[in-house]
Amino acid sequence: MSAREIAALEENLWSNWSQFGGPEGCAFTRTEKVCRLDTPIASLPYNGVFKFSVEETEADAEIDALMHHYEKRGVDHLWVIHPTASPTDLDERLNRRGFREAENCTGMIAGPEELKGSDALPDGLVIHEVGAEHKDVVMEMVASRWQVPSEAVMHLHAFYQMICSPTGGRTMRGWLALLDGHPVGKAFTHRNNGVIGLYGVATKPEARGKGVAAALCLRALQESVMSNDDLLVLHSSPMAENLYRRMGFRSVAPFRIFARDGAFHV
User: Fold this and answer.
1) CATH of domain 112-251
2) 249, 127 in Cβ contact below 8 A?
3) Strands (E), the chain
């Protein structure tokens, strides 16, 4: 573990979620101490505290103020305890306020030259970069994954409008996997300062165990690399860690997600 690796994992995560603060009615507020996301979608993960680095003597007041902010808005919110988060007992302070650890994600890193896997796709699998013609299908998969209510799906379309924008200057890209013509998987990448993050990887149950996830992730990362100096990062669920290790990633540090009981659907 190095300071550069930790910074890459944290900064790419914050930069990725900052994009969701762009559409009308949304905001990503960033200070030296706190990064927080506000959107009109009441379900997770679309509101929350992604960075918290506050002095111990100020922490309780700041936590209470942030929780009051989201309670006043009437939305669920999450907290990410990242490697440089402070105070060191932030988890205990969240526990005392009814928040529990919902998932412990592992921050993982690889260099482009370390990626492993075959470029040959499994039989019947086709992978497309997401364009305007794929957007509705991808949004349906995202909404299903996070149980976004139908009346809020329009906000998802606003978030992901950037995917269908011209390639020049774009920091977010998406990929859609089709197996025998049926959509079965999606993934996104986000580039920031030479660091490429892999996000939103999901495959439908009927496609699991067929090499779809590995092929999808490999294609997304390979097509996002622009230089051998790039660094590849991701934040893996426990279930996917072995997959990413086989692809050449190594574990660096935990990113713990806290939420109220039943609010975060792993």
Assistant:
1) 3.40.630.30
2) no
3) 27-30, 34-38, 48-52, 78-81, 99-110, 125-129, 172-179, 182-192, 195-203, 231-236, 250-260
Q: Which residues contact 9 (CB under 8 A, 6 or more apart)?
A: 82, 83, 107, 109, 233, 235, 252, 253, 255
The residue ranges of every structural domain in the chain are 3-106+256-260, 112-251
Residue 166: phi, psi to the nearest 5? -55, 150
Residue of 153, 125, 119 whose CA lies nearest to 222: 119
What gap in Å lies between CA 99 and CA 221, rounded to an integer?
Answer: 34
- Return the CATH number of the domain spanning residue range 3-106+256-260: 3.40.630
- DSSP-derived letter for residue 15 is H
Kindly report, residue by residue over 102-154, the tens digit of the pLDDT.
Answer: 999 999 999 999 999 999 999 999 999 998 888 889 999 999 889 898 888 88
Token pair of 23, please?
A: 């559409």
For residue 187, report the phi and psi dihedrals to the nearest 5 degrees: -155, 155
